Amino acid sequence: MSDRSVSEVGAYPAEREADKMEAGMGHGDAPATTVFAAHTAKRQEAAGLLALWSALVLTEGTVRFVLSEPAQDLLPADRATSTLPPILPFLAALMECIFGLSGVFVGVGAAFFNIHSRMATLVFLITQTIQSWFVFIIYVFLIPSYRARYLEAPIFPFDSIGESRWFITMGILTSVALCLALQGGQFAFGMRLFAHQSPPGKASEADAAKSAARGLFWNGNMVLGGLSTTIAGGLLLAAENGGAGRLGPVFFGAPPHVGVFPLMSLFTGLSMTATGLLGMAASVMSSLFTPLLVLTAFNYLLAYLNFTIVQVGAIEGGGPPQAAAFHSGLVLLTALIGPYFAYRARVGRLESDESA
């Protein structure tokens, strides 16, 4: 390699073997160089995507940390039973900042400066898994579950606490899909980077099959978010005080759903479901990839508008700005990760056909 400093700062043995290939010391100069170039491109792509996902994880963690009010008494003696212990969201937000920062260092170091260490990536993956599950449980399940359990009055436009809890449940399921794409996506690209930090050739033997499986999973995740959003829109339409027009005043009580415009929620959910189903099919059928890209662009735009500037911006008195910022990143990553792995599966099949 032209930059010898990489080896000096801890490049793994595969990197030194790749040096030989690039220099024409492999099993045939041209094939070795081609294999090395393809391997490096995939590795750097994975590093770049890890950096992107980690930056958005860090952004979310930072805002959550500030909102957790770390200066308050985190273990109040007079805490009401209906109030979540402040220490839990504080610790979860702090952990999200930690594994967000860790991912940024690993991803940026690899993508921008070609600094690689399989051990560093492995340590990141282990610590990220432990911390991200804690964050996921606290923010996606525990906080909204507390809200539903101790709900004292119906959420507008519903006229019963039971209906309101159903709406909150749909918010939990949609949050599962969006947050899984964020935190699970960070882990997925960390794993992809780790795989491509192995010697050239070994990481790509079953790349098409693995990518297709991941494409099925992540596009299925989009279907989950779409179905829960569709049901949320249907609940708003069927509510005693609901309807197809603009609703208000709306209380932002079932994030990420707002419900100012029920029809928009319904159509967004249907679009997400259709895109996810097409993505699952495109993960195993390359001919469907181009239609998937077209639908993905439309679906992303609609979901972005629904979960951010249209619905949150339409809350009377002003919606929480951090919600729009959160949802903007979550919607982008949820829309990207499924089609990305469908694309990688398509490329893997083409490479397999060419080498056959």
What is the terminal-to-terminal distance?
30 Å
Strand content: under 5%
Task: Count every beta strand, where a strand is a DSSP E run of 2 or more residues.
Answer: 0
Radius of gyration, taken over Cα atoms and rounded to an integer in Å: 23 Å
Overall mean pLDDT score?
88
Task: Please trace the helix and strand order, writing H or E for each element.
Answer: HHHHHHHHHH
What can be said about the biggest beta sheet? none
Q: DSSP helix count?
A: 10
Low-confidence stretches: 1-28
Structural class by helix and strand composition: mainly alpha
Oligomer designation: single chain
- The general outline is globular
Q: What helical percentage do the residues reach? A: over 70%
Verbal overview:
The protein is mainly α and 356 residues long. The chain is built from 10 helices and no strands. The protein has helices at 5-8, 13-22, 29-67, 87-113, 118-149, 161-196, 207-238, 262-282, 289-307, 321-355.
At a glance:
By secondary structure, the chain is an all-alpha fold. The chain has helices at residues 5-8, 13-22, 29-67, 87-113, 118-149, 161-196, 207-238, 262-282, 289-307, 321-355.
Can you tag this structure with a few keywords?
about 350 residues, mainly alpha, about 70% helix, about 0% strand, disordered N terminus
Topology:
Layout: H1 5-8, H2 13-22, H3 29-67, H4 87-113, H5 118-149, H6 161-196, H7 207-238, H8 262-282, H9 289-307, H10 321-355
Helix pairs in contact: 3-4, 3-6, 3-10, 4-5, 5-6, 6-7, 6-10, 7-8, 7-10, 8-9, 8-10, 9-10
